[in-house]
Design a protein that fits this description.
This protein is mainly α. The protein has 3 domains: 118 residues, no CATH class; 184 residues, Growth Hormone, Chain: A (Up-down Bundle), CATH 1.20.1250; 196 residues, MFS general substrate transporter like domains (Growth Hormone, Chain: A, Up-down Bundle). The protein is 80% helix and 3% strand. The protein is built from 19 helices and 2 strands. Strands 1-2 form a two-stranded antiparallel sheet. α15 packs parallel to α17, α16 runs antiparallel to α17 and α16 runs antiparallel to α19. It is globular and about 55 Å long. The N and C termini lie far apart (73 Å).
Length: 526
């Protein structure tokens, strides 16, 4: 009699568990798809189906849906090409404006009649901000800002800053409006556009990023000359107003970068897994005489709600992961323990002096008697060769299989020679040819930055390593132009400036032989 009673209790408990599972499954379907499924299934038919499975007269289904997951599926095309166009135009605008700093410098000296060192702060800060903007964008994303919002806000702020620069009464105001505000806003757009583009593609990601990055060279080639033409017709104040209109288009490009919506995906498991799960739930139910079954019901219902809607706990966990990721960009002990970190950091800090060349080449062209339009064409030549050189270095590294440390060393030696040759160029043809050779050598390093970081620190530490290197390069972009201005104000000679540049890069070239030795000895991670 006791055994019969226990058997009846077990059947009742199994029946209750089965009905609970069916109700929860209907709740899932209603929350996810808007309907509860077949609600006409009776209790008897459900019990009969279970008994048939247990007796072996009915085969269980091969697949059953157990949970709902939200995933972001890159379209690899479609609207992604609109985002690719937005990233191309963003790179075109941002890089073109930054590359025009040397042309703007001459106009600002004429307008405010300030020293070269003080006036160069405008271009130095806007160039440095291009490296400092990445971590700032990560922080905004941490606080739940979408890349679309970041780009649209950045476009509005940068346009307002450029228009405000039209009315700047002195160079100090211009440093804040055009240097700080516009610089940080441009960095927001630049990093956000290139990051969200990666989310839209997987198989075609390299193609999409290649198309987007070609916008930088195109912008350098066209906007430098157009900026000089605008200054000659409308003056620097009118040009700032036109630049503001150009930057306002960044808001439109940002609007194109709509966030990808997570897709509800039902993951399936085999009937064996479901049977195992059912037996586990039954075992839990047997222990529920003191009310533990009620707690189990609540926990199961809570888990279903967290799958469909997302609980606060999950959100907090995601935020904690994001915080740790942002902190790891600067505090990763693995990076600092690497013996080659200091060597690589110093090399790229010294290498960043090459960015000052684009600022002072137009001024040098003006000092040797060339017209300002010819000086702008020199910068256009630099922009045109930058795109080609990055393709060439990729071919040499991936197809010809030349070690990347060797390529970096060769590029630094090329920079030393070409920079030292600038003071001997007295004609447009000679200066344009030298600038093209310099741009080729310099942009070898641009293309090799991430590859070197990945090789030295490993792919898993690439984000942390490149963030630290970027900060150091940002410091170089900001400091070297100012130091150049101080030297020129003291000597009134660009020859000394370019010889000093050559000496700085020479030190980087000497240090790069250490990387060549380390790679030959197998000290690179990759």
């Amino acid at each position: 009699m006791a055994f019969a009673t226990i058997a009846n209790m077990q059947k009742s408990q199994e029946k209750g568990v089965l009905l609970l599972e069916k109700a929860l499954e209907m709740d899932k379907m209603e929350a996810t798809f808007g309907f509860r499924g077949d609600s006409n299934i009776s209790e008897e038919s459900t019990t009969r189906g279970l008994s048939e499975i247990e007796n072996g007269t009915k085969e269980p289904e091969d697949k059953v849906f157990t949970e709902v997951e939200n995933e972001i599926a890159p379209p690899d095309g479609g609207w992604g090409w609109a985002v690719c166009f937005a990233a191309f135009m963003t790179n075109f605008t941002v890089s073109g404006i930054i590359c025009s700093n040397g042309i703007v410098l001459l106009a600002l000296i004429d307008l405010y009649n300030e020293s070269v060192s003080k006036t160069s702060l405008v271009g130095a800060i806007i160039s440095g901000a291009s490296m400092f903007g990445g971590p700032f964008v990560l922080l905004l994303v941490l606080f739940k800002a979408s890349h679309r919002q970041i780009m649209m806000v950045g476009g509005v702020v940068s346009a307002a800053a450029a228009v405000a620069s039209t009315f700047a009464p002195n160079i100090e105001t211009l440093i804040f409006t055009y240097g700080v505000l516009a610089g940080m806003s441009l960095a927001m757009n630049f990093f956000a556009a290139n990051i969200i583009l990666g989310f839209y593609f997987t198989k075609k990601r390299a193609l999409a990023l290649g198309i987007a990055n070609s916008g930088s060279g195109s912008g350098n080639f066209l906007l430098s000359y157009l900026t000089e033409r605008s200054i000659s017709f409308y003056g620097i104040r009118g040009t700032f107003f036109l630049i503001g209109g150009l930057l306002l288009n960044l808001t439109v490009y940002g609007a194109l970068c709509r966030p990808l919506k997570p897709i509800s995906k039902q993951s399936s498991s085999s009937s064996e897994n479901q049977q195992t799960s059912t037996h586990e739930k039954r075992n839990i139910a047997f222990k529920s005489e003191d009310g533990s079954k009620e707690r189990q019901d609540k926990e199961t219902a809570s888990s279903c709600q967290s799958v469909n809607e997302g609980t606060d706990v999950q959100k907090i966990e995601k935020e904690r992961v994001s915080v740790s990721q942002v902190l790891s960009l600067y505090c990763d002990k693995t990076i600092f323990k690497n013996k080659l970190f200091g060597l690589l950091a110093v090399i790229f800090l010294l290498w960043s002096v090459g960015d000052s060349m684009s600022i002072y080449l137009p001024a040098y062209a003006d000092s040797v008697g060339l017209s300002r339009s010819e000086g702008a064409l020199v910068i256009s030549v630099v922009g045109f060769t930058s795109t080609i050189s990055q393709i060439v270095v990729g071919f040499l590294a991936d197809v010809v299989h030349i070690p990347i440390s060797n390529l970096l060393c060769i590029s630094l030696i090329g920079m030393v020679v070409t920079i030292a040759s600038v003071p001997h160029c007295q004609s447009f043809a000679a200066l344009a040819a030298t600038a093209a050779a310099f741009s080729t050598s310099y942009n070898f390093g641009v293309a090799l930055r991430i590859a070197m970081v990945a090789a030295v620190f490993g792919v898993e530490n690439m984000s942390s390593g490149f963030s630290l290197i970027s900060i150091l390069m940002g410091i170089g972009y900001s400091v070297f132009p100012i130091g150049t201005g101080v030297v020129y104000d003291a000597t009134r000679s660009f020859s000394i400036v370019f010889y000093a540049y050559s000496a700085i890069v020479s030190l980087a070239a000497i240090l790069s032989f250490g990387l060549v030795y380390a790679q030959r000895k197998g000290q690179f991670v990759e």
